[in-house]
Amino acid sequence: MDLITELERFRPWNEQEERDLAELLRRLRSGEELYSRENLSAHLTASAWVTSPDRRQVLLAYHNLYDSWAWLGGHADGERDLLAVAVRETREESGLTSVRPLSPDICSVEILTVDGHEKRGVYIPSHLHLNITYLLEADPAAPVRCKPDENSRVAWFGLEEALAVSSEPWMRERIYRKLNAKLEGF
């Protein structure tokens, strides 16, 4: 199933998702190339809200760029299967080898702003991440490790604790709190 069809099936949780979904669909239908970082103004990313089997913990990484505990995920970089991107990025950023989707369906959509920054000595201009989020599950007893070029720590947190350790107010209140609420349905 293509992304437009998946997004058309997606039912927004709140006004943020409703508005961001409309913009995602508008951009995809326009034919704008969004699967590659070559589009400097906006491109697709996939994130994972990784939960423990009992749904009481989530896995976060301390992201160097954002200087905050945050979810896992990354750029599509040409890949059209965004669930596969979320799983791949989770494995790369956490060292987990066994990660499984709770559902193949999209959990959340959001358009995220990214300030201009340096990456590997190259300036990256401010842009948008057109993000698709999936719920994944992993065992908190499995070993994790950081990915030094992206994060400095990886750890499991209780649901409320995960909100408290994030230093990004908008992400904490608008995204992570929403994802915790959506976990109640699983």
How is this structure best described in words?
The structure is a single chain. The chain has 186 residues and is an alpha+beta fold. It has one domain: Alpha-Beta Complex (Nucleoside Triphosphate Pyrophosphohydrolase). It contains five helices and ten strands. Strands 1, 2, 3, 4, 5, 6, 9 and 10 form an eight-stranded mixed β-sheet that branches. Strands 7-8 form a two-stranded antiparallel sheet. It starts with a helix and ends with a helix. The mean pLDDT is 94.
Anisotropy-based shape: globular
Global Rg: 16 Å
Uncertain runs: none
- CATH domain class: Alpha Beta
CATH structural architecture:
Alpha-Beta Complex
The largest β sheet comes out as: 8 strands, mixed
SSE series: HHEEEEHEEEEEEHH
> Structural class of the secondary elements?
alpha+beta
Distance between the termini: 23 Å
Q: Do you know the CATH topology?
A: Nucleoside Triphosphate Pyrophosphohydrolase
Number of strands: 10
| CATH homologous superfamily grouping | Nucleoside Triphosphate Pyrophosphohydrolase
Provide the number of structural domains.
1
Summed over residues and divided by their number, the pLDDT gives a mean of: 94
> Strand percentage, roughly?
25-35%
Please report the number of helical segments: 5
Helix content: 25-40%
